[in-house]
Write a structure and sequence with these properties.
Jelly Rolls; Immunoglobulin-like; TIM Barrel; 9-stranded parallel sheet; 6-stranded antiparallel sheet; 6 helices; globular
Length: 605
């Protein structure tokens, strides 16, 4: 007999445009239990409690209370401490700073449905890395991947009073995971993004796409997909400001496509980030989104935004607030990082090395900053493992599903600094094909590596078969930091045999904010400043250079960075220190970008 605990084993498709709907927040204080040995998940002989017919008293997800003084129950959420959600656990309790493993969260809440016939879902913005979710003693399912959203329907389990929501979050690094065990950022554990209840009609708008056709500046195409029993309905798609309106009918699967010709459309760009209200309605539901319309494509060595060449004045960023030294999680955090990028005169930002909070893309839409979004296929993951591939593909699918209507997003990146070999290239090529099948309106790339022939230390080559697959040749280069001193930049020659645009996805070096010395003293602001001047001059000698993304906007935590009194667990390559102060190199890059915004310094222009 199949156990009832086994009926739901994975997360349902995430709800889209949650931030455009009325929601009930479950953010705030959650009780937590640290469970390093997973006592609440496995019985002593190794069997999972959620696979048993009668889980017994040891299973924490039951949130059971003793019926009498003699009953043995070895946990108590009510007496346990609390963590704030959203937020990482590492920076909320010193004892958890480097903890990796399982923590059980519980939140008790009341909820009365607004309409008896409606359906209710629990939506998680992200939980790092594996999340097992239970409501009122019943398992809803599991989600794998620390940076993408997921949802569960809870209509049948929800009570008006005393709902107990329990989440087991486990951030253990694994060889076959994405990312794998070794990466250069803080492994922030916990429920790191918003948790919300979303009440929807019995049949609701589950998915939609509204975008310009690739290569067109006026033809809007898209689709609408319904979820529920009444799948065959009349759909209206409307842009009130343009007076465009179309009615279509969904098929038996709740799916319909549409096309709208918008000849007087104001195109979205960093200089004019125009957003339109787009209203999608059916007989049972209605949703309004703010969407910008722009085209992005490549032609030879040019990147064309709205058919015009654009140089991407970029900066990389981690999803971290350096002032707290913690995972960024709020709209205010996102606005701070984007505002700092604007201060550099950036029109572009690489969100490394994993999907960032949805707030980033939505605010970038408003603020006019183009985005590179990435999944954590990082360094040497298990490229021969089909389960690992499916994990990466699922994270890519969830990212594209979430952000496909955001005008700011122009590049899907499928990897960073992966070693070149046959299985890796096949892995990345499949991901690129998946990205294009889900969204053919954007560009696909990855952060590649350069090589140096043994007989010429000044020749930098990009000979990577994936460069032939990608729309843009992007690579990381650290001349003057890991490779010689900054003066070496003067002698560098390039071998990049691709007729495609080039974006430098990373360059830079470290400096401790406030440490000063001469230009040859590492870790000083003067060394980093000089390195930036030399690198920028070196990179502009690449004829097809069409974008730069220095590493990185802010100092960020990383347990790999061990130098006492300088790194102290921080990667110091930021242009802004952990206290928010700008280093000297910040102003070098800003001056360079100011000139580029006026059309200076751009190769072949």
């Amino acid at each position: 007999m199949i156990s009832a605990w086994m009926l739901t084993v994975s997360a349902q498709s995430p709800l889209l445009s949650v931030y455009n709907r009325e929601t009930f927040s479950l953010n705030g204080k959650w009780n937590y239990i640290v469970d390093q040995y997973e006592t609440g998940f496995y019985a002593y002989h190794g069997t999972r409690y959620d696979e048993l017919e009668n889980p017994g008293n040891g299973a924490i997800f039951l949130d059971k209370k003793p019926q009498n003084k003699s009953e043995l129950i070895e946990y108590d959420f009510d007496l346990s401490p609390t963590l704030m959600v959203p937020g990482d656990w590492n920076t909320q309790d010193p004892k958890l700073f480097l903890y990796e493993g399982s923590i059980w969260y519980r939140r008790v809440f009341d909820y009365a449905k607004k309409n008896p016939g409606n359906r209710v879902f629990i939506h998680f913005g992200a939980v790092n890395y594996e999340a097992d979710v239970y409501l009122n003693g019943k398992k809803l399912g599991r989600h794998t991947g620390g940076f993408t959203p997921f949802s569960f329907e809870v209509t049948a389990l929800l009570k008006e009073k005393g709902n107990s929501l329990v989440v087991k979050a486990n951030d253990t690094r694994k060889h076959d995971a994405v990312p794998t065990e070794n990466f250069d950022w803080m492994n922030y554990g916990g429920i790191t993004r918003d948790v919300q209840l979303v009440e929807l009609p019995s049949t609701f708008i589950a998915d939609y796409s509204v975008q310009l056709v690739k290569g067109s500046l006026s033809m809007i195409k898209g689709f609408v997909r319904l979820n529920g029993s009444g799948k065959q309905q009349k759909i209206t798609v409307e842009l009130p400001e343009t007076k465009l309106k179309q009615q279509i009918n969904t098929d038996e699967n709740g799916y319909a496509e549409f096309a709208l010709e918008a000849k007087k459309l104001t195109l979205w760009s960093p200089e004019n980030p125009k957003l339109y209200d787009v209203i999608i309605s059916c007989e049972t539901d209605r949703i309004t989104d703010r969407i910008g319309f722009r085209s992005i494509e490549v032609s030879g060595s040019e990147i064309l935004l709205n058919k015009k060449p654009v140089f991407l004045r970029g900066i990389c960023a981690h999803e971290e607030n350096p002032l707290r030294g913690a995972r960024a999680y709020s709209k205010e955090d996102a606005r701070m990082l984007l505002t700092w990028a604007r201060e550099l005169n950036c029109n572009f930002m690489r969100l490394a090395h994993y999907p960032h909070n949805e707030y980033m893309a939505r605010l970038a839409d408003e603020m006019g900053i183009l985005l590179w979004e990435e999944i954590p296929v990082y360094w040497t993951i298990d490229f021969t493992n089909e389960t690992t591939y499916k994990n990466a593909e699922n994270q890519l699918t969830e990212l594209i599903g979430r952000d496909k209507n955001r005008a700011s997003v122009i590049i899907w990146s499928v990897a960073n600094e992966t070693p070149v070999h046959e299985s890796r290239t096949a892995f990345l090529t499949k991901l690129a094909q998946k990205a294009r099948s889900l969204d053919d309106t954007r560009l696909v790339s990855a952060a590649l590596e350069v090589s140096t022939p043994s007989d010429n230390p000044f020749l930098k080559r990009v000979h990577d078969p994936f460069a032939g697959v990608a729309d843009i040749v992007s690579f990381n280069v650290y001349v003057g930091w890991y490779d010689g001193l900054p003066d070496k930049c003067d002698r560098i020659l390039w071998d990049i045999p691709y007729e495609k645009p080039v974006i430098i996805s990373e360059f830079g070096g470290g400096a401790l904010q406030g440490l000063h010395g001469d230009t040859l003293t590492r870790w000083t602001e003067e060394f980093q400043e000089y390195l930036y001047r030399k690198n920028l001059a070196m990179l502009t000698r690449i004829p097809q250079l069409r974008g730069t993304n220095p590493w990185i906007l802010c100092d960020f935590r990383s347990p790999k960075r061990l130098l006492p009194q300088v790194q102290d667990g921080w990667n110091r390559k930021g242009l802004i220190g952990q206290n928010g102060s700008r280093k000297k190199a910040f102003y070098v890059l800003r001056e360079f970008y100011d000139k580029m915004s006026r059309g200076e310094n751009i190769p072949n222009r």
